[in-house]
Write a structure and sequence with these properties.
Elements (H helix, E strand, L loop, with lengths): L34 E3 L28 E6 L15 H17 L4 E7 L15 H4 L12 H11 L3 E6 L17 H4 L4 E4 L2 E4 L4 H17 L4 E4 L12 H7 L5 H22 L4 E3 L22 H4 L4 H6 L5 E2 L14 H12 L5 E6 L3 H4 L5 H12 L4 E4 L5 H13 L8 E5 L2 E4 L9 E8 L5 E6 L2 E4 L7 E7 L7 E7 L1
Parallel strand pairs: 2-3, 2-11, 3-4, 4-7, 7-8, 8-9, 9-10, 10-11, 12-18
Antiparallel strand pairs: 1-12, 5-6, 13-14, 14-17, 15-16, 15-18
Helix pairs in contact: 1-3, 5-7, 12-13
Amino acid sequence: MKEPGSGENRSPCFLKRRKNVKRNLFFASAIGALCVSLLLAAPGGRTGGADAETGISPVQGRDDELRGLWVSTVYRLDYPLQYTSSAEELGRYAEEIVNDAADAGYNAIFFQVRPTGDAMYDSDIFPWSKYLTGTQGKAPEGGFDPLSCFAEKAHAAGIELHAWINPYRITMSESDELSADNPALLRPELTEKYGGKLYYNPGNPEARALILDGAEEILENYDVDGLHIDDYFYPGTDFPDEEEYARYGQGMSLGDWRRANNDALVRALGELAEEYGVPFGVSPAGIWKNASSDPAGSDTNGYETYFSAYADTRGWVKKEYVDYILPQIYWKIGNRAADYEILVKWWKEVCEGTSVRLYIGQAIYQVREAGWETEEIGRQINLARTEGADGYVHFRYEYLSDVKELVSEFNAAADSSERKILLSAENAQISAPESAEEGTEISVTVTAEAGKFLRFAEIDGTRFDFPDGHVRELTFRALVRPSAKDLYISAGTY
């Protein structure tokens, strides 16, 4: 066997993988030839009991609920733990994150693949991220590819992997050094300095085209389950874009022109993702407008994305530029300036009558950073469920350890205890029950067709072989073990 990175037998962690369009929570999964689904997971299912620490009981979640976790790479906040070019260490860090997410019951990871105009993957457009090795443009050893590795490990664990990009930000400080192949260095006319950082100028159509090219590269080459951008749009109202405004403003007010620029990018990203059959969504700051600014706004008093970031987040929902909206509602229930409950209800109303799904961004980091009681997270999950949200995403992985026991129980409350039964038979018939509850025994009968004999029968990984070729029918009982996977029964004949 060849060593990783030495040729065509490399692990997927060491390869860019051309996109095979796959479906996820937004689309029905196709079942392969000869497989027939007898049982779909029934709505409802088990509900967890009260959490031992908080006494709060989880509200039952829907079967199609998205339960996500953000994994940040800027400043190495979540990944990697330290600068390294070691493929072994980078792979181990990724595996730990995916395992922790799986143990806690998450079904989606939002992995930050472009933190600052650089890449956590092998890109022909953007340089390797400095947050991997400590030097921008320096690749990990042996052809290791973090995005490919995360996708492989997440999918093996039954978890979706969404590619999260920060579209405009290039640097985090004036001291950041750009590699010689960085497009920001090669094409400085696309960039602007602001607040000690460098940004791609949202008002420059060629800068937006570059961002789109980068997104398409990801969708073309990697097996990701979605495309995601966060809340960083215009960094300030005094952003220096006078030249672009004079050239492209077309008589619009400055504010309307800036919003039109963000509209154009969001719409184009959505259309691009649709071409590849994956969902696209945005996680903006939680307040579009306060009601004091616009009667259509929320009963809040805080930072307004419409005016401060020039992000018409409500408009993106109404125009269906996005498949989902994921507002970051990082306040407590009952907060005077921005009440979590008020904002969840407001966003739910915004999404009514559209095809846009609503996920709620929740701040598990506040337990450690602001002294929130753990049960606040449980209450927020419950409220999102009772108000009809389609799921929630937690910011961010580092803080999972603070709330893992509670989150695990609340995440589990969305899983049905019934398992799909998938049959695959070659010249045989399989008789199995229409219900398979975990922890119960089921009876299965396998019968060979006329003139045939059973060669093998297998259920849930346990295989029975019949080398003598004299068995026409087999009846056996099996225990349905707890698992997030489908239950497979197969048989073959001579």
